[in-house]
Design brief:
The chain is α+β, with helices and mostly antiparallel strands. It folds into 2 domains: about 1-190, no CATH class; about 195-295, no CATH class. The protein is about 40% helix and about 20% strand. It contains 10 helices and 11 strands. A 5-stranded mixed β-sheet has the order 5-2-6-1-7, sandwiched between helices. The protein has a 4-stranded mixed β-sheet with strand order 8-9-10-11. The protein has a two-stranded antiparallel ribbon with strand order 3-4. α1 (about 25-40) runs antiparallel to α5 (about 155-165). The model is unreliable at about 85-95 (pLDDT under 50).
Length: about 300
């Protein structure tokens, strides 16, 4: 069983890290501090393998269907040499490991762990990690983290300073979050910037990918998440007027409203794509029921 988490680095406004990734030795050193911090927050964390990516990402790169960053860490963990020991649990028992992955000798992170350059620039960067081990211990850690991290999950001072120095970043706060904590934080941020109506589609794709979700809240565009992708109702001017501005008679206002609607539709589609979702635009003729077109 696994526990997905991240070291979240809140940057000084207007600043960006000077380095995208750490060399192997640097990643290992930072991972050691992270492992110590996590064990202080939940004692059973010390009995789980810590798998750490020595690179930082935009939160949207972590919050994608199937959790691809963490899935890649799972794959790398599965390939790592196994270790046994007898320190506390008897000869041949599993000994928890800290496994860190960093950049190669040229400072390049191999795909698919390479952060997307076009998503640099945000005020929050996340450094993902996994805790892997027995179902009982992982469940105990997950439950403790659920109650502990948001309230007292700040990284210890030397960990925060190490991350700041290693990534050449100006860090205001460094804290630990579960993947679900990060999703909740992003939902709140989306509401603050007027995108709250979109979040249920992203959340469904993350947490219940086989379910169905709609954005059907005029004047917002009409969207449906289904079958692992998002369908967008693509209205022409007449169709938009009928469904969104049926009482409007002024042609100039109709034109402005339709242009604003199209811009909003492009914005929402771009955000969904950043979260790793396929977006399919389906023409909706004026005479057809748009919800039926997205069925």
């Amino acid at each position: 069983m696994i526990v997905r988490g991240a070291l979240a680095l809140e940057l000084v406004p207007g600043s960006q890290p000077g380095r995208a990734a750490l060399r192997q030795a640097e990643a290992g050193a930072l991972a050691g501090l992270v492992g110590r911090d996590l064990a202080a927050l939940a004692a059973d964390a010390a009995a789980l393998d810590l798998v750490f990516a020595g690179a930082h990402y935009d939160p949207a790169e972590m919050l994608r269907p199937g959790w691809p960053l963490h899935r890649r860490l799972e794959e790398l963990h599965a390939r790592a040499p196994q270790s046994t020991g007898s320190e506390s649990t008897g000869a041949g028992a599993h000994t928890a490991r800290i496994i860190a992955f960093g950049a190669d000798e040229h400072g390049v992170v191999p795909q698919p762990l390479r952060a997307e350059l076009e998503l640099h620039g945000g005020p929050l960067r996340v450094v993902p990690f996994l805790l892997v081990g027995s179902a009982e211990r992982a469940a105990a850690v997950a439950a403790e983290f659920e109650h502990a991290l948001l309230e007292r999950g700040m990284a210890q001072a030397d960990t925060a300073l190490s991350a700041q120095d290693a990534f050449e970043a100006k860090v205001e706060h460094a804290r630990y979050l579960t993947a679900y904590d990060l999703a909740a934080m992003m939902a709140l941020q989306y509401r603050h910037v007027g995108l709250g109506a979109l979040w249920p589609l992203v959340e469904t794709a993350l947490l219940a990918p086989n379910e169905d979700a709609w954005l059907d809240a005029p004047p917002e565009p009409l969207l449906r998440y289904v079958d692992g992708a998002v369908r967008v109702a693509d209205f022409d001017r007449s169709g938009w007027q009928r469904h969104y501005a049926g009482d409007e008679l002024d042609a100039a206002r109709i034109d402005r409203g339709f242009m604003h609607f199209q811009a909003r539709q492009r914005q929402l589609a771009a955000i969904l794509k950043v979260h790793g979702l396929d977006v399919h635009t389906l023409p909706c003729p004026v005479e057809r029921d748009p919800r039926a077109m997205l069925a």
